[in-house]
From TrEMBL:
Reactions this protein catalyses: alpha-D-glucose 1-phosphate + ATP + H(+) = ADP-alpha-D-glucose + diphosphate
InterPro entries in the cross-refs: ADP-Glc_PPase, ADP_Glu_pyroP_CS, GlgC_bac, GlmU/GlgC-like_hexapep, NTP_transferase_dom, Nucleotide-diphossugar_trans, Trimer_LpxA-like_sf
Domain of life: Bacteria
HAMAP family recorded: GlgC
Stated name of the protein: Glucose-1-phosphate adenylyltransferase
Nucleotidyl transferase domain segment(s): 23-293
SUPFAM superfamilies for this protein: Nucleotide-diphospho-sugar transferases (SSF53448), Trimeric LpxA-like enzymes (SSF51161)
Quaternary assembly: Homotetramer.
EC annotation from Swiss-Prot or TrEMBL: 2.7.7.27
């Protein structure tokens, strides 16, 4: 950030503008690449890091940044997401003009369509958004894990007199085709924007990297309203911010790139500007297991930038039995409240609330979601165990790739997803 943005006068202005900013979190996607994990839950509602939900990161970033007017747009199988927000995020005070407003798809516009794209989701709630009279609208995805001070992004937006600001991050070119990819000039103005290109353009001087959109946008509100009105009636549009609205502005408006490195919230000694799209089984497993390291890139212990969530009322984790062949222990692991490790061994694993691991079990390099019960003598390696699954005694997963692939979904990187449906098929002799 430049020195003028650090000036106290600008800080006061930014704080005032933050109070007049409305954040909209797009949380309606299914997240089909997470396979059975999203059969009954929208991706933003999936548990992450032992006690949180994915959407808690975007919501916490808003609260910690000073944005306390928030709308959450939902659509796909939203019950657990709505329930989580109602239970865990009801602490804002309406009399202070603070709120988290739930905006499920309601077929509110002429034609009675469900949300047809990210821009259409906002358009269908345009009357509600206008009623809040925002000066700026911050558009966020509800399915990424990161810590970001949106106030710094707004400060740059104001200083550069931008019409639209787009947060960006450098990613390897081999994965950039899954993002919007941009080119910028020396003033950080975006001169080209391609949504999910087959051959992403490299960054100058960095042939292995591409500059990718994070799906985080700040719009001047009046411009956004006009754009959405025009886009809604354009038959050739897919009604998406990345595919339609942002590219259409490049030649006619000031569209500015905001580098994530300028607003990423990092702990002392951190080397990485942490941002994760946990939209695949491999990425979800890796992001959870990474947190078991001695010093992970994502700091969950930072009191200055806490992650808020719904707190289940459960007892502390418990470890029982201490004989040589039956010792309840966990090493290099994170365990949430309500877990009982009963004469079993857990290594390099993430266990969510109310997981029971029974005697003589071995759980290694695994992610076990809330409410699971792992039967005696089971051995699980590099697994994700879905919510509420009862693992039968003696089940062995993660030691024979061919057997695992016949019985469960197994990724090319060797992560096995254990679900109740697959276990039932196995019990019935169908696997």
């Amino acid at each position: 950030m430049t020195n003028d943005l650090a000036d106290r006068g600008v800080d006061l202005e930014v704080n005032q503008r933050l109070r007049k900013t409305l954040a909209l979190i797009l949380a309606g996607g299914r997240g089909s690449r997470l396979m059975d994990l999203t059969d009954w839950h929208a991706k933003p509602a999936i548990p992450f890091a032992g006690k949180f939900r994915i959407i808690d990161f975007a919501l916490s970033n808003c609260i910690n940044s000073g944005i306390r007017r928030i709308g959450v747009l939902t659509q796909y199988k939203a019950h657990s997401l709505l329930q989580h927000i109602q239970r865990g995020w009801g602490f804002l005070r309406g009399e202070f003009n603070e709120f988290i407003e739930l905006l499920p798809a309601q077929q509110r516009t002429e034609g009675g369509n469900w949300y047809r794209g990210t821009a259409d989701a906002v358009y269908q709630n345009l009357d509600i958004i206008r009623a809040h009279r925002p000066e700026h609208v911050l558009i966020l995805a509800g399915d990424h894990v990161y810590k970001m001070n949106y106030g710094r992004m707004l400060a740059q937006h104001l200083a550069s007199k931008a019409d639209v600001s787009v947060a960006c991050i450098a990613v390897p070119r081999e994965i950039a085709s899954g993002f919007g990819v941009m080119a910028i000039n020396a003033d950080n103005h975006i001169v080209r924007f391609d949504e999910k290109p087959a051959d992403p353009a490299p960054m100058p001087g960095h042939p292995d990297l591409a500059l990718a959109s994070m799906g985080i946008y700040i719009f001047n509100a009046s411009l956004l309203f006009d754009l959405l009105e025009k886009d809604s009636s354009f038959a050739g549009s897919s009604h998406d911010f990345g595919k339609d609205l942002i590219p259409s502005l490049i030649a006619t408006h000031r569209v500015v790139a905001h580098h994530f490195s300028d607003s990423c919230v990092m702990h002392d000694g951190a080397q990485e500007h942490y941002w994760r799209d946990v939209g695949t089984i491999d990425a979800y497993w890796e992001a959870n297991v990474d947190l078991t390291k001695v010093t992970p890139s994502l700091n969950l212990y930072d009191d200055s930038w806490p992650i808020w969530t719904d707190q289940p009322q459960v007892p502390p984790a418990k470890f029982v039995f201490d004989s040589d062949d039956r010792r309840g222990m966990a090493v290099d692991s994170l365990l949430a409240g309500g877990c009982i490790i009963s004469g079993a061994v857990v290594r390099r694993s993430m266990l969510f609330s109310n997981v029971r691991v029974n005697s003589y079990c071995l759980v290694e390099d695994s992610v076990v979601l809330p409410g699971c019960d792992i039967g005696r003598h089971a051995r699980l390696t590099k697994c994700i165990v879905d919510q509420g699954v009862v693992v039968p005694p003696g089940l062995v997963v993660g030691e024979d790739p061919e057997i695992d692939a016949r019985r469960f979904y197994r990724t090319e990187k060797g992560i096995t997803l254990i679900t109740a449906a697959k276990l039932k098929a196995l019990e019935n002799g169908e696997a």
